[in-house]
């Protein structure tokens, strides 16, 4: 992995941690805007890492629910039809 991807991923991880810690979903967006003011290339790497990490978190959560449900003899499926972090697809 190159410097660009490393920095983008590191910033995305830290922004998500701060979002969770402080309960403030605007933190990742603020960081993205700040990055974009000086480097659109790094901004794109950051936003890509952010999307990947959020998707992985959702998938991990769903997998945990599926496994827990199956262990109880239940069938658990995803009911998400809209990506919660994409305002263009909401409602």
Classification by helices and strands: mainly alpha
Number of strands: 0
The gross shape turns out to be: elongated
Q: Could you give the distance between the termini?
A: 37 Å
Element-by-element helix/strand order = HHH
Helix content: 55-70%
What integer value in Å does the Rg equal? 16 Å
Q: pLDDT under 50 segments (min length 5)?
A: 81-91
**What fraction strand?**
under 5%
Give the averaged pLDDT, no decimals.
Answer: 88
The main sheet comes to: none
- Summed up, the helix count is 3
In short, what is this structure?
This protein is mainly α and 91 residues long. Helices cover 68% and strands 0% of the residues.
Structure overview:
It contains 3 helices and no strands. With 91 residues, the protein is an all-alpha fold. The chain has a domain at 3-55. It is elongated. It starts with a helix and ends in a 20-residue tail after the last helix.
List key phrases describing it.
91 residues, mainly alpha, elongated, disordered C terminus
How would the blueprint of this fold be written?
Blueprint: H1 3-22, H2 27-36, H3 40-71
Helix pairs in contact: 1-3, 2-3
